[in-house]
Records
---
Amino acid sequence: MSIAERLTGLSARDNTPIAIVGLGHGATHWVAATFYLLLPSLSTTLGLDYAATGLLVSILHVSAFLANFGSGPLTDVTGRRVALQVLSLLLGAAALATLGLAAGLLAVAGLVAVIGVSNNLWHPPAISYLSARFPGQRGWALSVHALGAGLGDAIAPLAAGALLAALSWEGVALYASLPVLVVAAVIALFLGRAPAASHGDGGKGMDFAQYLSGLAAVVKDKAVLGLCLMSAFRSMTQNGLMVFLPLYLAHEMAVSPLIMGIALASLQVGGLIATPIAGRLSDRVGRRQIVLAGLGVSTLAIAALTLLGDELSFIAGVSVLGFALYAIRPVVHSWMMDLTPSHLGGSATSLMFGAQTGLSILAPVVGGIVADAYGLVVTFYVLAGTMLITNLLAWRLPDTKRA
């Protein structure tokens, strides 16, 4: 038995599709992370204040929220999990490529909405694909999926920040779309040729009446609803940080675009280290313990960021935050898959991400209003408060362990 098999419980051949789906997840986050890094330049070009900038980001979350009503059912009823992953990437790449070509706020808002749709179109087919194919190593498979997201979130700010030193933000948006198209082709080529039924793709899906009956049972489950609410507050805090960290760095600390990119990338570095460890460990000891530890550290780290005055210590603090905050993301997803039948994995994922985006819609607008009235520092204290609520909700949830 190889070292990889001992650590993951899977052969190199089985780990290949996991890595490919993780790469696709990274591409969706590459699109969003690039948008967030370009946000200060974009808002300056359009002459937006903090509240208006936050409203533009809320459009992304509103569109993602609305997409949830169709992406989960579409995944479970059609069973076309691979095709929907490819479609998600193509939409995101097209929207990012044309963002810099848009004339006026209305056109930009429309493209931001497409980015939101592409992001939440990805999760139901991808997470249910991995969960159905690797039920015994669910935490590991979804941790690699989340690891891909972390890589996308980490590399995109560095790449975009470096490109901004030589190009306009419009040019950066265009060039950043090209890697996403390449990843879409890789998924279509390698996963699309695999036999559907034996590889986690649902084939013909299921009867719609059967689907509705199963969905009704899922939405009545108190544990599922509680997990959705907890995950929503965690996501609300995370998305608030993605909006206000670059604004804080640009306007309060007055750092260069490259330093801003390094700081945002450092948010992912800790998560990249901790994510596979947390996912594999949750397969063995249960999801709840891992989630509670990560949430506690995240709450303290957010509150402490505003006390760090120099660039080096701030980057270090952001790294600690990322270590705790992003490591638990796949554990939460695995927790949801543990609680729901595999043939309804898409809709369960859609339900969870719908709750997440529902609260995430509020974070940029409320945070922007608070920042305009009291300053960006107070906004970070509000985000620490929402993370504390997440801790309290997690305490009330039942634990699950690998079957």
Note: The chain has a mean pLDDT of 83.
---
Amino acid sequence: MLDQLTIKGRLVAAAMRLAAERPWHKVTVAEIADAAGVSLVDVRNEIGSKGDLVAAFVRMVDDAVLTRAPQRAGGQPPRDALFEVIMSRFDVLAAYKPALKSIAASWPIEPQVALAVAGSQPWMLRAAGISADGVEGKLRSAGLGALYASVYRTWLFDDDPGLAKTMAALDRRLRRGEQTLQQIDGVVGKFCGFARSCRDAARNHSTAKPSEPDPGTDAASIPPGALS
């Protein structure tokens, strides 16, 4: 998954190896550079911090999941497709679980990592054949982010090879989320209908012929002191 032909790929791979060996907060950028066999100049040109490396890792995982998605999610009901996509993500992450445990223990999470994880959510929806565009899409992405964060914590400490706890938690959260999503979609649909009606009314008003001004009420015809 990690393209080690690129400098960034080598840096990310080195960061994951070092994180698996010892606490992430003790790993330095200089050590990552040494492990990757690159200079600090190259590191400076590629990243700004360790958080940037983790964010790059998240995006590389996105690429791997999206590559798998057409075979896994095609023609399935949305909830089943999303289940497959998320489990596919955990499958991609499995080799890096020791490193991810180390990184998770080094909270608080850095802003760029949080942004990368948030950016993954609409792509997981799209991989499952679910729209992630517009107001509805933003709400779905936010909801999926909360769902994924909860199930990710379960997966991180699920040592069962079959991931029974993870799959049970994911199925439970998806069923609950599906009900919530239906309610949200209903509310958003009503709001969008209201917004469209307001827009149409505004357009109709703006294109209506303006009434002729009353010459008897312009400013010049008002006697001095009449407004005092």
Note: DSSP finds nine helices and no strands in the chain.
---
Amino acid sequence: MAIIAIVFGSYCHGEEVIARVSKQLDYKDIVSRLFNITSQRYNVSADQLLQSLVPPPPPVAKSLIAQELDLAYLQTVLAELMEPDKAIISGCPAFLIPANISHVLRVCLIADVAHRRSNSLKIDGGSEDDATARIKDDDLKLATCAAHFSHRPVYDESLYDIVIPMDQTSVSDAAAIICEQAQSEAVATTERSREAVAGFRLASEIKVALLQKGWRVEVFAEAGHVIVGINDHVLNMKRLQTKIERKVMSFPGVTEVTTKLGSKYSPPSANPWNDVDVPPRILLVDDEKEFVQTLSERLRTRSLESTIAYNGEQALEMLKSDVADVIVLDLRMPGIDGIETLRRVKKQYPGVEVIILTGHGSKREQEIAEELGAFAYLQKPVNVNELARVMKAAYMRAKGKT
């Protein structure tokens, strides 16, 4: 029988329908297992994984490469959990499933706003405006996932095999429809569809390995042939392609590798700051000398000059004579750590915007950094184009232009 992927709007009886389908077909909703296994295997909190799947708006949002790595972790585990049948994948994780896996019954449960608002008021109370706001917030989260993976609106009927209007359908009838369709030949498991799951798993494992190298990529695998789309702009693309091909060929089962420009690739403009009259004063603070020097050089190729400090004390001393507009600050440093440096910078120079860039941060440190006024919290490895984008946003705020 088919694997069942169910996307549902809030206050559309989704949980009740899933419970009935699970009982009638002896299926398990694997979403909790997905997050638990991924969290334990990759030492990433479930909250962080959820934040990558449903990212908050800037400046809280993490770097693109960190987000994509978390999603690749989830997809790797999801592919494993999909190998046996009789699984339900509900909510946003349903969008992680590639479209080429044919034994997935894709279901959407939705209702008109009046019906959802009425249910919201019964369940959570408050005013009609409160209910409407809750529904909009929930729909935005689903829409973010749909846009990231399918580039279509979340309630676009073409994304699903079945769309059930829950303002016109009872829970029992909706469950009966899903159970009947899950047993139809149209979504039956075949040898080819199982091979698609195996390709999904291989592609996800390869994507994790490449992202951990700091390479933003998209990966597709089928019958041993792996296609890698490169989304980073680099000075020597041929050299990067060779490195990627060598890495991918080390995976068991890979017989052929093709590299190409990815769907999200876009070369930077000659000067991404050409609408800024006064050059920004950028200070990079990190005790990893090789990393921060390389970062400075890569920013220079994007017409962004920067100065470097190798610890918090040095940074604070430099600010006395030349106050920066934007600081990119590591957390773990000898002496004054990043949190204390941030605290002192925001106290002494409140107009300076600080971007945290760390490879060893925790959820609690992120919360503290945000409370202290950090503009953004990014994790290494970071895509330089993404960092430059965040730096420009920080600069515009520092200059009172946003």
Note: The chain is about 45% helix and 15% strand.
---
Amino acid sequence: MLTDTIVAVATPNGRGGVGIVRLSGPKAMQVASKVVRVELSNSRITNYTDFLDSKGDKIDTGLVVFFKGPNSYTGENVIEMHMHGNPIILGEMVRACCELDARLARPGEFTERAFRAGKINLVQAEAVADLIAAQSVKAVRSAQNTLEGHFGNVVEKLILQTQEIRYQLEAAIDFSDDVSSPDFIPHMFGLHKKLLEGLKSLLASATQGAKLSEGFKLVIAGPPNAGKSMLLNRLVQSERAIVSSEAGTTRDAINVECRLRDIPVQIIDTAGLREDVESSIEKEGIKRTYAAIEKADLVIYLKDVTSTVPAGRDYESDLVTHAKILTVFNKLDKLPETNKLEKNSGIYISALSGVGVANLEDAIIENFDASNNENVEFSARERHLIALKKAINAIDAIEDVSFGASPELVAEDYREATGALQEIGGEYSTEDLLGDIFSKFCIGK
């Protein structure tokens, strides 16, 4: 497939001032020579030209740029044709190229070719998609840093550390006198502890980087009529959920993506938690509430500050085992001014009027540890976290005596850790993994 010449529109769908059609592959020059009127001999020089279809009829007028491989995005000869951003014009240009022995590119195929040509590693390839999808300035900057190699460089240093420890172990096994040396175990265990610290530090940063890219999950839970749907609407500043005084209105989880203080957040409004439920639909809604809580980074447990109904089952303590809990008391606006409120620990708000909501947002960001995102240097993904945890688990339980008593087993643990880290950059990637990653790209990238 990499011997094919591919073509696609590289700009977003819709109409605009400029649209770009991109060609890449061994026949890119041959195809381009028939659809433009200028000679493309000089790399990275912009030329003004007419664009023609496969029969030689004019499609449009614009600019064309030739990027000679291997000094191009894909490592192949690449032609970019800049014309008016009308989908009809762009479609005609793509059709002309396909009639001249190119084929339509698959999603992410240009970036996949860059990866396979060694222009970028897999982490950087994923950062391209993260950069395009970024929903905040912080996310853009972290994706740019990953694309520039910050994350990959840290991973590569850790790989070299794991390999160095393994090499020293294997050398010591071959020369048994080294293992019995009094300095051997302290030296090796010191290297081991330093590596573990680096792995755990990277995991903490990568976890924040992944959340910055993919978004934090915030679940609003609590008894019926506590004002959960109204709070959702207040936080996203839009009427996304139905608000009603009738108990049990929300039957299914409502997911809304938004930004709180420039942090991407997925807010989930859930069915009210109660025991006296007869409706099978509401029971299913409560079941889904617990499923959402299992995956949450933070749960707002919302209570009605005016409620005089006995608490009954303590759902709040149930949920503590599942996620971080932030207790919030709602409906301050319903309290008479003369009423003295005996405040418990928690945050007090009125989702209706907005009183206290700013303080709630502060607490949400603090519980997400999102203030640390100022120092997040790179974007990351869930598969990176899995690989880092796999590497840590492989060597975390190793004790100092193991370096002397069973260096062969320790060396094997380090081999496993090295392999886990190498999965991040793509050294040991399956075709299924690559297919899954690049299929989520847009077609022109």
Note: The chain has two domains: 6-119, 120-439.
